[in-house]
Amino acid sequence: MNYLLARQYFSQEIQQPDEYIDLAKAALFIAQEEYPHIDPEEYLNGLDTIALDLQERLPRDRYPMKVIQTINQYLYEDLGFAGNTEHYYDPCNSFLNDVIDRRTGIPITLAVVYLEIARRIDFPMVGIGMPGHFLVRPDIADMEIFVDAFHGGEIMFPQDCEDRLSQLYQQPVTLEPKYLPVLSKTQILARMLSNLKYIYLNQQELEKALAAVERILLLTPDSIIEIRDRGLLSYQLGRFHQAENDLQRYLQETPKARDINVIQQLLNQLKGSRD
């Protein structure tokens, strides 16, 4: 399989209403651009197997806390999943096939594993985009229990989240709903791709960074920041027609942006080289 086919499959999957998107499958199509040889169905079957094995371990009384404790026991103690603290910025941590194979990853990819296993045992959970981190929680009204998939399934309560946010901002923070938003599948996938984008930018792998931006734009076509970044990356890669279109649109839609002078200079260079 070539990367264009993987991109096509990804695009087809995310065209559905959000509730029908198969999160794991879409994440595996992201990985397939990096690993054209992988078979997503093999990894989906692997998640099915984990869920079946877990099903046998579930308590008869499915109280949420007991279910979470059983998931944690199986995923982290029996199977050995763990957060990758030593090589946090390794791009492998963002590819679901690597996370399943190596049983290590970053918060969002480990959360995807957690969400997908929970869904398969009929214990629906949602992703929580806490600033600087990613959590999951049961999709149960008024139940304020959060799970940190990166730290061994640590169970957190609102006060724990408030304490962590206070550490992040280095000042007291009063917990508000805006700090713990429920993310859609589309938003989760975009966040995974954003992680890849910044990793590749730091590594100066511009083609791969551009591929991440292109897929973010499939998810959020009107994201003007991603349109700008596609333009900047296209410029650096010598794709001047795309660069000019994107940067011109950025100028039109954000006339008061802080970087407007830099973007205008690039556009002038592009137009000058064309004339």
From TrEMBL:
Belongs to the UPF0162 family. TPR repeats lie at residues 190-223. This is Protein SirB1 N-terminal domain-containing protein. The keyword tRNA processing does not apply. Pfam families: TPR_9, Transglut_core2. Keywords: TPR repeat. Coiled coil: none annotated. The keyword Metal-binding does not apply. Residues 42-193 form the Protein SirB1 N-terminal domain.
